[in-house]
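[audit] Reproducing an earlier prediction to check determinism. Same input, same settings, fresh worker. If the tokens differ from the archived copy the diff job will pick it up downstream; this log only records the rerun itself.
[audit] input (117 residues):
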Amino acid sequence: MENLFSAMLNNAFNTSSYIPAKGCSKCGMTYEEFRNTGKFGCNDCIDTFKPRIMPVVKNIQGYDAHTGKIPKRAGGNYKIKKDIEKLKNELKSAIEKEEYENAARIRDKIREMESNI
């Protein structure tokens, strides 16, 4: 399984975009080492190699943000609140782009969701 993941990373990352020459400033891992192992050396590696890995993560998963599982103790409103937060960001973006009809639809959806909390 690890070899499969490593091979997938090698193929996915085999493009000519930016690669930091020095590697990670904290652990010293180079991009080549990451590409060969499929593992980061430390927490700072993701920031170091982010320009290369995020497009691939988005391509593989369909999105580039980790959502994870919601703990049962958080309740059902947690997901709704996160969805409202996302919609508010979309609303702000629509207003900035002067897409007022779309902004109105998003605003109405936010109001509907907030009334159900």
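[audit] rerun output stored. Observation attached for the diff report: The two ends are 43 Å apart (CA to CA).
[audit] end
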